Automatic annotation (TrEMBL):
It comes from Peribacillus huizhouensis. This is DegV family protein with EDD domain. Pfam families: DegV. Keywords: Lipid-binding. PANTHER family: DEGV DOMAIN-CONTAINING PROTEIN DR_1986-RELATED (PTHR33434), FATTY ACID-BINDING PROTEIN TM_1468 (PTHR33434:SF2). InterPro entries: DegV, DegV_C, DegV_domain_contain.
Amino acid sequence: MKTAVVTDSTAYIPEHIRKQFHIHMVPLQVVIGNETYREEIDITADEFYDVVKTQDKLPTTSQPPTGLFVEKYEELAQEYEAVVSIHLSSGISGTYQGAVSAGEMVESLDVHGFDSEISCYVQAFYVLEAAKMALDGKGPDEILARLDVIKQSVRAYFMVDDLAHLQRGGRLSSAQALIGSLLQVKPILHFVDKVIVPFEKIRTRKKAMKRIADLLGQDVAQGGTYKAVIIHAKREAEAKEWQKELKTQYPNVEFDISYFGPVIGTHLGEGSMAMGWYKV
């Protein structure tokens, strides 16, 4: 059975990698002022952060129209028999459900939805594994079984740098933002049951990043081989420096660097950092 792999833009997989592994992408949208942009198509992450600084109001985001998924699946039905469609957590977006609903509308294709229960390049871990298996001729059942195994070891922790940004988005009161800023609090967040929740409050950025690195170390100490990714919101130089340090600390872990694009960046803000990993 010839299987295609579909994901959405919040996996933030570079175009050349999508082409290399035949990954099909459906974009989410970000609305800035009166303009609507398709993420990863009409606007880059760097452009987004620059434009946001000029706006009084935070951007808004929206999931892909169901019809866009239908269109993509009908196009794939000309060449493929099945699709594994991997999307950001259903707890923070309706994208996964939209993909599943669209799949039910396309009778000529066997569509299997997969809720990554996470987002960004940690979501891409699933996508890349699925794409490689599909290219090797594996069918959806075997691919989904492997993704379920990966899910058992996936971890991801996000550090939010700008409490004022969270406050502007209505996710933090003005008083909390003021007190947090005075204390230099850097909240570490993670996904639990498909939604983002606080993990710990750390006093400084440096300590928060060290805490995340220590959490990786706890898993690595259990044995096995790990892949990890550092994710940044317009902090590429800092991400590269952190990668250098982590490679020295954990020489057996393979580290990549990715970014928070417009949709996720809207909710976390410039300066955010994260790391995710899984056992290979």
